[in-house]
Write a structure and sequence with these properties.
This protein is α/β, with parallel strands linked by helices. Helices cover 51% and strands 12% of the residues. It has two domains: 121 residues, Four Helix Bundle (Hemerythrin (Met), subunit A) (Up-down Bundle); 154 residues, P-loop containing nucleotide triphosphate hydrolases (Rossmann fold), CATH 3.40.50.300. The chain is built from eleven helices and six strands. Helix 1 packs antiparallel against helix 2 and helix 2 packs antiparallel against helix 9. The longest helix has 25 residues. The chain is elongated and about 80 Å long.
Amino acid sequence: MSGSVSRRLSPVKQQLIKLIAHLEAGIDFAEDDVELPDSTKIANEVRDVKDTLEALQRTYSYGRLLKLGIRIVIVGKPNVGKSSLFNCLVNSDRAIVTDIPGTTRDIISEGTSLDGIPLNIFDTAGVREALDRVEQIGVSRALETAAEADLILFVVDGSATFEQEDQNVWERVRQLPHLVVANKADLAQAHDPELEKMRPIRLSARTGEGLDELRRTIRNSLGEIPSEDLAESILTTARQHEAVVRAITQLEGGEAALNEGVPHEMVLLDLYQALVSLNELTGETTTEDILGQIFSTFCIGK
């Protein structure tokens, strides 16, 4: 709404207009002794524009997180402390916690944030061979929710050996984005070799030990925060992202053409298409803008 992306792109677009004007002048006003631009120099300037757009394009994954939030799903066999961990992460006694395996039967979700990034955290039923129809439905929903997660927290009991039920859950989630969490660090640890291979984050949902490390690891898994000069102008919509990607692709074509000695008339087609893509985000550039740049830069018609 504040036009930050447009403001970020405005100098980039002006740089591109200047390049187009230079090529147009060399082609259309040769009789006025306008020197033909050096292709290598123009290619380097095109690359500079492309590099700036690529830096902006890389902000999209972060911007998408800010807009939509990240889905974090907690899974594991029953009685490993999933609901306790869920309550810690959302800072609320949202889920019922008991020593009875299978207490959680349905999906429970709650919103929170981490460094300004919205998180949607889901607690799920313990995954095991269900004892009744209701639990079967809960396990099925848990696996379906895990399949749609941006990040899975696979929770095991760090005070016990890695059992077949743990292995069954692991086989379901190992190919998905995940972190392995060994809960119950306040108890004597089993240090199972199978679990140690997974390099788990050890914590205690009861005492809070290790929770800060888990939060840091979650934050690091979300990707790089844009640099300060880009932080105000991140891409948050697919439309913005697609327009910038198209412009980058067209500039790559123009740069390659210049390096290969393709006539400037053909190079201009790529540069104009890149300009059209940027116009979708900043507003229309008219022929008068190009001509204005030409006449303000070169001594033509004198």
